[in-house]
Amino acid sequence: MNGFLLMLALAFGSGLASSVKIVKEKEEYLIERLGSYNKKLEPGLNFTIPMFDKIVYKDTIREKVLDIPAQSCITRDNVTITVDAVVYWRVMEMYKAYYKVENLRDAMVNLVLTQIRSEMGKLELDQTFTARTEINEILLRELDIATDPWGVKVTRVELRDIMPSKAVQDSMELQMAAERKKRAAILTSEGERDSAVNSAQGRAQSRLLDAEASKKAAILEAEAEKQAILLRAEAEREQQVMKASGTAQAMEIVTDKLKNEAQAREALQFILAQQYLDMGKEIGSSESSKVMFMDPSNMVSTMEGMRSIITNNKTDNGEYVPTELNLEKINRNYQ
Fold first, then answer.
1. How many angstroms separate the Cα of 172 from the Cα of each of 133, 177, 179, 186, 196?
2. In this prediction, what percent of the chain has a pLDDT beyond 90?
3. If you classify domain 64-164 with CATH, what class do you get?
4. Which of 134, 140, 110 is nearest to 122 (CA)?
5. In angstroms, what CA-CA distances link 179 with 176, 185, 186, 225, 252?
6. Which of 26, 108, 157, 333 is deepest in the core (most CB within 10 A)?
7. Which first-to-last residue range defines the signal peptide (predicted)?
């Protein structure tokens, strides 16, 4: 009897112990009672009925990583590429994750593979490399909508590697090499063109500067010559004015002498004769050859003619009127 009670106590204690369930933080358990869903165990201390309640599913509600294996895809331009990805997700509703789909992880892997093949088939090869961010956003949106009935929230999708086949890679390398050569040739030609243009512009500017300098030099030279001509003309004019002024003063002196002294007339005649002889001497000493005819017997008549110029200026009152003495005119009259 004591043994039976002991066994009964042990069984009761074992059942009581098995009814206590401790759930960790960020984890949830699904409980079925007699084959049907009963409740969800939250983190902390929970109690179940032994032999009636059964834990059928338990999982974490933290974010998880789903590694998508590499798969072959065909782009819109019929190029075969290999793509793999990584998906970040977490369970939002444990009940749906267990009862709405069988083997949630496999279902998500197949769904992601299908979506990747679908999106890659819409793009050409070059677009798959340049539009990776757009592809990630499209996959995230589509997968989030598709997994919502399973109680799953897809938080991020990232394409990791997009690898073309070996033949395509070789073709791409050749294409890139040709493109680089093309760009190098274009840059070289543009550099030569710019150099030629700069050289031509430099020569044009040099010629323009030379022409401008020549123009300025010609203008300055012309202005200098003009100033020189003006200065020479001014000097000649002043010289003539001074000469005329000197002649006028000399005439005034001679006139005064003729008025006041009677013998001044003979002195004037002598001076005129002397100047006439000096003029002939100067003409004879010039470099050009000249022939001057002068009759010595007419010297007296010449002097008389000069005297008549002086005496004819005498007025009725016996006074002399000033006369302009122009030696050149006298010379022409008596040659």
1. 22, 8, 10, 21, 36
2. 10
3. alpha beta
4. 134
5. 5, 10, 10, 68, 107
6. 157
7. none
